[in-house]
Design brief:
Helix content: 55-70%
Order of helices and strands: HHEEHHHH
Strand order of the largest sheet: 1-2
Number of domains: 2
Largest sheet: 2 strands, antiparallel
CATH class of the largest domain: Mainly Alpha
Strand content: under 5%
Length: about 130
């Protein structure tokens, strides 16, 4: 199938398919006599795997590691679990960081009068980090 059909079947854009090929997550597509990329059902299966891993927030390096484990029939499930739990820990760090940002902004907004006066603790706080 051509790249457009592979994109539709996998849920991955044609641009991203070319990118995944360029970085080696997806094997280079075979080419037709006219030079067009041609994808197999197996390629689409790999693209769906990549898309699902991206949906779960894995970075390219993590996806590459998962793909290698997926392809290795002799893998230990403990290796897969290690990769997944490391990603969970990273997600939890990001969640905590985002929660801290939200808490700070919420506190600043609570102290802002939100009226016609120019005084605003939100801008004062942002300016404090500017070093003017």
């Amino acid at each position: 199938m051509n790249i457009g059909k592979a994109a539709a079947a996998s849920g991955v854009s044609a641009k991203m398919i070319r990118y995944y090929e360029s970085i080696g997550l997806l094997a280079a597509a075979r080419r037709t006599d006219a030079g067009y990329r041609a994808y197999s059902d197996e390629d689409v299966h790999v693209l769906r795997f990549i898309r699902r891993a991206r949906d779960l927030g894995f970075a390219v390096a993590g996806i590459a590691e998962l793909l290698a484990l997926w392809r290795d029939q002799g893998r230990a499930s403990a290796d897969v679990k290690r990769v997944a739990l490391a990603h969970v820990a990273e997600l939890e760090r990001k969640i905590a960081q985002l929660q801290g940002m939200a808490d700070t902004l919420r506190a600043l907004a609570e102290h802002c009068h939100g009226d016609a006066r120019p005084d605003c603790p939100i801008l004062t706080d942002l300016d404090a980090g500017g070093g003017r």
